[in-house]
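User: Let's play a game. I give you a shape written as tokens, and you guess the letters that built it. Ready? Here's round one.
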């Protein structure tokens, strides 16, 4: 019987040598040849392993998610606590912001806020904020609680209600408006392209492609109650609101609605006029919610007309504007 040929001592030292006797342990060089040099099959194997790991991770995440989300009983219990303890001037902040079921479950008339952050937000008309949080849920964190704590003069620590943690923060300097102009739109006089716009509903006006209405729109990462303006003409849209209570300050905000914020178009100019020499203007080119103030004289009659002047946003775009009278 012929003897097997001895392995060569030169050539490719990292290859698994053919002719290794069946059952013999592979040499170290043979094992290394499985991963080096890299070959297409190595990339395919790594991709398959990564997909498998992600799949197992996703299954594990989904399996543990149910324990971190509220049940129907948790929602009813949180609603009952707020029904009992909330009072006028209260609002509810959500963490994470996507827990929008709160709008359907919580007591009607209790404002629900779903902003990613609260630093710098005016929070008009809010004295106390209840933070309804889901610890451990995707998107939950401490940022909202830190923002509210920085603006608070006291409150109540968190209490657990099933999957929820419910706490209360009392704002140190609440902004309590004497009047909120979007709510007075029914008595406004609206003009577009030099023509008056007839009423198209309780809080809406329409003339041609121009629409002016009191709406809730997504601007700057959250829902905003505002006067929404759609217009494609060349002349500004003028909204005159009569008999607005006089005070020291008019605080206004404006921003492009998220759905049309990226549509091409020039910057939109928004001006607020309260009387001779009492005017402020801002240019809006994106979805940020920008605020600006008009300082007003105190030696004026108890009411005055306030005018909002908005340049046309252009096709496919809508701008959201509000203004509040602050003492």
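Assistant: Ready! My guess for every position:
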């Amino acid at each position: 019987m012929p003897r097997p040929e001895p392995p060569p001592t030169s050539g490719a030292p990292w290859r698994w040598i053919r002719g290794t006797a069946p059952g013999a342990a592979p040499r170290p060089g043979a094992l290394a040849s499985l991963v080096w040099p890299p070959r297409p099959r190595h990339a395919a194997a790594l991709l398959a392993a990564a997909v498998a790991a992600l799949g197992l991770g996703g299954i594990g995440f989904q399996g543990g998610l149910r324990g971190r989300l509220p049940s129907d009983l948790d929602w009813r219990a949180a609603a009952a606590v707020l029904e009992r303890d909330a009072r006028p001037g209260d609002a509810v902040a959500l963490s994470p912001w996507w827990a929008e079921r709160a709008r359907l479950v919580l007591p009607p008339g209790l404002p629900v806020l779903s902003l990613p952050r609260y630093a710098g937000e005016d929070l008009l008309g809010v004295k106390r904020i209840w933070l309804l949080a889901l610890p451990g849920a995707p998107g939950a964190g401490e940022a909202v609680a830190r923002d509210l704590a920085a603006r608070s003069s006291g409150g109540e620590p968190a209490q657990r209600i099933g999957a929820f943690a419910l706490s209360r923060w009392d704002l140190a300097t609440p902004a309590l408006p004497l009047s909120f102009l979007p709510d007075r739109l029914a008595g406004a006089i609206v003009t577009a392209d030099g023509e008056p716009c007839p009423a198209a509903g309780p809080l809406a006006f329409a003339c041609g492609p121009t629409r002016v209405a009191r709406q809730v729109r997504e601007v700057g990462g959250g829902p905003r109650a505002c006067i929404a303006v759609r217009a494609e003409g060349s002349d500004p849209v003028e909204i005159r609101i009569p008999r607005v209570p006089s005070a020291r300050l008019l605080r206004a905000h404006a921003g492009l609605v998220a759905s049309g914020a990226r549509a091409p178009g020039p910057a939109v100019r928004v001006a607020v006029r309260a009387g001779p020499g009492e005017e402020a203007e801002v240019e809006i080119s994106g979805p940020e919610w920008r605020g600006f103030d008009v300082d007003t004289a105190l030696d004026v009659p108890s009411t005055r007309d306030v005018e909002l002047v908005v340049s046309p946003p252009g096709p496919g775009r809508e701008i959201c504007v509000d203004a509040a009278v602050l003492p």
